[in-house]
Amino acid sequence: QVQVVESGGGLVQAGGSLRLSCAASGGTFSMYHVGWFRLAPGKEREFVAAIRSSGNVTWYADSAKGRFTTSRDNANSRVYLQMNSLKPDDTATYYCAARIMDGRTWIPRSKSSYYYWGQGTQVTVTS
Questions:
Q1: Which residues are within 8 A (CB) of 50 and not within 5 positions of it... i.e. 6 or more apart?
Q2: Conformational region of residue 85, where left means phi above 0, alpha means psi within -120 to 50, and beta covers everything else
Q3: Which residues pair with 37 in a beta bridge?
Q4: Distances (CA, A) of 30 to 41, 52, 56, 78, 85
Q5: pLDDT in tens, the chain (127 residues)
Q6: C-alpha distances in angstroms, 10 versus 14, 16, 38, 54, 57?
Q7: Fewer CB within 10 Å, N side or C side of the chain?
Q8: Please, which residues bridge with residue 126 across strands?
Q9: d(CA 2, CA 10)
Q10: CA nearest neighbour of 111 among 65, 45, 12, 53
């Protein structure tokens, strides 16, 4: 069973930066695609970014483009989400999700494409 754990959230002023980390255990990490989602009060869980298992392709929500960067270190079973120029609208609980390469179609922006989810880490951006 794969376990996914996020860390790195916190309180930051607008314009600041945070780096979230996603650690995975219980499987061959290099075989997992990883996505980042967030859930803000009163809103649905939304896609933020995703990275292919190999790390050579990434996807971003329009709200994240130019400000957020996702990367991975397969040797250490970690994926990162570097968030710069943070805005109050980025305030949310951020989740890491993983999905093994199983031959089925993976839709990076779709919540239902992921099998394993972390508990989330809170990011609060003050104005």
A1: 33, 34, 35, 36, 58, 59, 70, 108, 109
A2: left
A3: 47, 95
A4: 33, 9, 12, 10, 30
A5: 889 999 999 999 999 999 999 998 888 889 999 999 999 999 999 999 999 999 999 999 999 999 999 999 999 999 999 999 999 999 999 999 999 988 889 999 999 999 999 999 999 999 9
A6: 12, 11, 14, 29, 28
A7: N
A8: 13
A9: 25
A10: 45
**Total residue length of the chain:** 127
Which token pair is 116?
A: 């394993």
Instruction: Name the token pair of 122.
Output: 């809170």
**End-to-end alpha carbon distance in the chain:** 40
Look up residue 56 and give its DSSP letter. Answer: S
Contact 82, 16 (CB under 8 A): no
Answer whether 55's CB lies under 8 Å from 117's CB: no
Q: Which two tokens stand for residue 33?
A: 């695609």
Write the CB contacts of 49 (distance below 8 Å, at least 6 apart in sequence): 35, 36, 58, 59, 60, 61, 64, 68, 69, 70, 81
